[in-house]
DNA sequence: AACACTAATCAACATCATGTCAATAAAACG
DNA sequence: CGTTTTATTGACATGATGTTGATTAGTGTT
């Protein structure tokens, strides 16, 4: 299937992508130009256009590459676990793998999720989370009648919440382990944030 | 304090802001230029620079204006309600006012929250939600020891969840009333999404 | 109505990033 | 080795930017 890539091509693309990530971190995606990227990469500007249409194309391809790995990792662990004991107090493996996979590429995820003007990546990531949550909820409770809220609302609610917490975790430079984070998310999502329910006297 | 604004100035700024919103909706924020904006507004390009530094400055000022109204509305209803019965099944007024205020300016909120490359607005909105959630949680449970999860995580979790649902609501052209949406958010946040808790046999 | 004042228009300008091209040099491959 | 592919270089037209100075139009004050 995949022809072996000319080493010059692989090297050039990697240098451009590394330069992109660095520059987004330093100056923000909006401010950087194709000139900046090629200069930082030590390449000629014309070389850029041999590989990418424009700045967005470079970003877009970098996004898809990294998200492809994440989807594969999560689908793998979803397929593994057919039944799951929610009373064990243990987080679902898929949650752990989510945080682990992100920590493997934390440099890139941090830049792509926390820097400004990265909506191309964040919206792709949100799509991914929505899909993930929708599948999880469908497994757990396929009957809409037994939901206390509109399913679409609930899906978006949890997808956004998870992505928000992931972003927080990266902003703070991952102060907790993937397992701890997964546990917190499971707990708050199913039990709410309070130990003693303040709504019941 | 505030001198009466020259009607030419007010008119010009309004035309520029209207043109901005229209064009973001039609072509996306990234693609539009100062030329496009002034052309749509029927103004000379030089006039733009009499009022704003660049495209971002125009966007930024439009954001602050609209968010100022939202903050005021929510602070007002926060101040009114000192005690609140969470068992009433009624949503807190602040939640309702949140959705109502957004529905008053739904055209602008929809464009600013759902179009791509609007992270300047979405991150300001997220800050606002974080502040709102942090205050609400502090009132409800000031003691960290009685939280099942890290407070910062919980704050980000709910702020992101709320903003996600608001965005969904605007994407779908507000299919439910503000009161209904507020009720759904209260319910899912405190009780979880399931009528019968599937985690307890 | 005439006045001074401010805002908007217009044409012009230098600057900069873009995307493309043809010619050339360098590296990879068989 | 020679052939093919890739990267470099300098050049070019294009289009948006931000600014300027001179002019016209609108505001509101006396």
From TrEMBL, chains A, B:
<dbReference type="InterPro" id="IPR009057">
    <property type="entry name" value="Homeodomain-like_sf"/>
</dbReference>
<protein>
    <submittedName>
        <fullName>TetR family transcriptional regulator</fullName>
    </submittedName>
</protein>
<dbReference type="InterPro" id="IPR050624">
    <property type="entry name" value="HTH-type_Tx_Regulator"/>
</dbReference>
<keyword id="KW-1133">Transmembrane helix</keyword>
<feature type="domain" description="HTH tetR-type">
    <location>
        <begin position="10"/>
        <end position="70"/>
    </location>
</feature>
<dbReference type="Pfam" id="PF00440">
    <property type="entry name" value="TetR_N"/>
</dbReference>
<keyword id="KW-0472">Membrane</keyword>
<feature type="transmembrane region" description="Helical">
    <location>
        <begin position="153"/>
        <end position="170"/>
    </location>
</feature>
<feature type="DNA-binding region" description="H-T-H motif">
    <location>
        <begin position="33"/>
        <end position="52"/>
    </location>
</feature>
<dbReference type="InterPro" id="IPR001647">
    <property type="entry name" value="HTH_TetR"/>
</dbReference>
<dbReference type="InterPro" id="IPR039532">
    <property type="entry name" value="TetR_C_Firmicutes"/>
</dbReference>
<dbReference type="Pfam" id="PF14278">
    <property type="entry name" value="TetR_C_8"/>
</dbReference>
<keyword id="KW-0812">Transmembrane</keyword>
<keyword id="KW-0238">DNA-binding</keyword>
